[in-house]
Amino acid sequence: MSTEPGATDSAREVPEWWIFHGTGQPRGHLDLASQLPPPPPWRTYSGTPDPAPPPPDQDSGRYLGPARSLGFAVPLGPNRRQLLDKVNAAIHLRRPLLLVGPPGVGKSSLAHQIARELKLGRLLRWAVTSRATAADGLYAYDPLTQIHDLNLENTRNRTRGPTDLRYSKEATRTGAETEAHLSSSAKSIGRYLTLGPLGTAFLPRKLPRVLLIDDFDLGDFDLSGDLLDLFENGGYRIPELARLANVAESIEVGTDDPGRRVEVHNGEILCSAFPIIVLTCNTDRDLPPAFLRRCIPVRVGMPDESELMAAVAGHFRGTPPTGTRELITRFLEAGRDGDRLALDQLLNAVYLLSETTQQQAGPTSDQVDHLAELLWHRLTDDPE
């Protein structure tokens, strides 16, 4: 066991085998490339890693609060320790982490914590809908715009007037020039094809990307089966590009990372470091056994008082506003009475309380009751 640097709780010890300590704060001395153990032999993949680093993380602050080198560490209670055991098992085994629990308990925030603490760059997020398919998450192809551009180009060529074909470029082009022209024409498809967050996560990198597949239970029943091949083989094929491999072996396409483009060879993408995948489910939806055995499942409930205090402190630069503990106590009491509440409802109340009681030593019970009535409507009720 080792005491984590920067933790305010001196008794906060983490097992030596943990890669992720659960603070959600960047670990300045972490060298993940050397400290991350190799994958099991059956989870190794042969993609050639791109040395370019991923885009920087610019979104976690909205979900976790400002990053700090030292700060309020989340206490390691029994439930939190069990959760982190599962997270680290998934990282070591290169398996997706399946989080099941009610909305608003911090499932999605966990993915941001992993990305920021391990310094893995921008989080990739795929929000699943009832119409989502695996292909939607892998890439998007826009053939209609491509056809429109081709028609526009043909119209432009026709307005230039007829030419004597005996002396045209087409008539005098050599075999090599013709091949180069075909290759250039084939590569133009890359302007109309963009990898989605799921497809971008499996690009070969030296270090894994963190992928959040949010609201997985909203997807079609077949979605889990469609992802099995991807999760097992660590890669996928893009038919639109594979069909052009004989004339354009390499085609540049866009990615889910803004402004980033990559070369796809022979229409196939194979990872080198399996991504850290976090799937969230709000309901106990039945999933096929074949899918469940390839994941590390864990049930997530509402955090306890110390965890809620740490979460609030993270959004207020390590110092919870006066009256936070009273609000948390009332928040937990409401949950025990059967009200289904979410963490953002607590944060809203803390922020509003800090703004309305700046001149007071602390909130009155009436103020706490008023905020609870104002903001903490049950998520299962219709708004009045």
From TrEMBL:
Residues 25-63 are annotated as: Disordered. Residues 93-306 form the AAA+ ATPase domain. One of its GO terms (molecular function) is ATP hydrolysis activity. It holds the Pfam family AAA_5. Transmembrane segments: none annotated. It comes from the Bacteria. This is MoxR-like ATPase.
